[in-house]
């Protein structure tokens, strides 16, 4: 009798493990499509923002990033309209909650950083002292990239995807250090560009950095997951 109970327990554990793996594979393909769509939207907005800011000199075009959630949700629903939904599971719930948390934090931080920078710029104009502004203004790109890398890495561990884990780590930490240590400014100094090009590079650099590290963090793992069968 005890032997039968052990066999039943082992069989139950095997069934549960099999169901989890099946659920993970099903969710992985769905997540891959979502990551791929999100990456294309972010890269597209980054390029459009760069072009508009460069042509007009108006940095308010960076607010276009706020449209990303709307674009992602709309395009994702259109692409997946005729496809069966991924089954509700613990794996899928963990992935969804991770990206929901990421979206809330990023959107809140992005809006607050813009408001803070506006206040700092106003005080600098009043006091005619821009040194304080340049020392204390918030650069949201590095924090957004870091949080995005963390979300991708967590999803990678959840879905047991080494590609996703490494892309998240490289994209998130790489983008954070690139912005934090002013790699763009260093390269500009080494290149000895004419002064008239500096403002152009400063205008488009953050958006291009966002596009490059989004490609590493989202596009590559999204494509790899999407191709899994």
Descriptive account of the structure:
- With 229 residues, the chain is mainly alpha-helical.
- The protein is 83% helix and 0% strand.
- The chain has 8 helices and no strands.
- Helix 1 crosses helix 2 and helix 3 runs antiparallel to helix 4.
- The protein starts with a helix and ends with a helix.
- The model has no long low-confidence stretch (mean pLDDT 78).
Counting DSSP H or I runs of 4 or more residues, the number of helices is 8
Radius of gyration: 22 Å
Biggest sheet details? none
Number of strands: 0
**What is the N-to-C order of secondary-structure elements (H for helix, E for strand)?**
HHHHHHHH
Overall pLDDT confidence: 78
Summed up:
The protein is mainly alpha-helical and 229 residues long.
Helices and strands, with pairings:
Elements: H1 2-56, H2 68-79, H3 90-127, H4 130-136, H5 140-159, H6 162-180, H7 183-191, H8 198-227
Helix pairs in contact: 1-2, 1-3, 1-8, 3-4, 3-5, 5-6, 5-8, 6-8
């Amino acid at each position: 009798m005890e032997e039968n109970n052990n066999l039943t327990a082992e069989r139950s554990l095997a069934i549960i493990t099999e169901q989890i793996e099946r659920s993970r594979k099903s969710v992985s393909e769905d997540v891959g499509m979502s990551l791929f769509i999100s990456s294309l939207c972010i890269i597209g907005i980054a390029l459009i923002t760069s072009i508009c800011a460069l042509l007009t000199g108006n940095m308010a075009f960076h607010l276009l990033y706020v449209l990303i959630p709307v674009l992602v949700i709309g395009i994702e629903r259109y692409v997946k309209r005729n496809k069966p939904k991924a089954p509700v599971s613990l794996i899928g719930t963990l992935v969804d909650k991770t990206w929901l948390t990421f979206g809330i934090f990023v959107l809140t931080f992005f809006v607050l950083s813009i408001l803070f920078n506006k206040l700092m710029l106003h005080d600098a104009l009043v006091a005619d002292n821009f040194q304080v502004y340049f020392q204390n203004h918030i650069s949201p790109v590095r924090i957004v990239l870091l949080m995005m890398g963390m979300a991708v890495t967590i999803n990678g561990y959840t879905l047991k995807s080494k590609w996703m884990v490494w892309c998240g780590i490289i994209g998130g930490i790489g983008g954070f250090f690139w912005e934090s240590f002013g790699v763009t400014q260093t390269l500009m100094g080494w290149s000895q560009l004419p002064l008239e090009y500096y403002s152009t590079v400063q205008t488009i650099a953050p958006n291009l950095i966002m596009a490059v590290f989004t490609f590493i963090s989202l596009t590559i793992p999204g494509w790899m997951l999407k191709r899994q069968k």
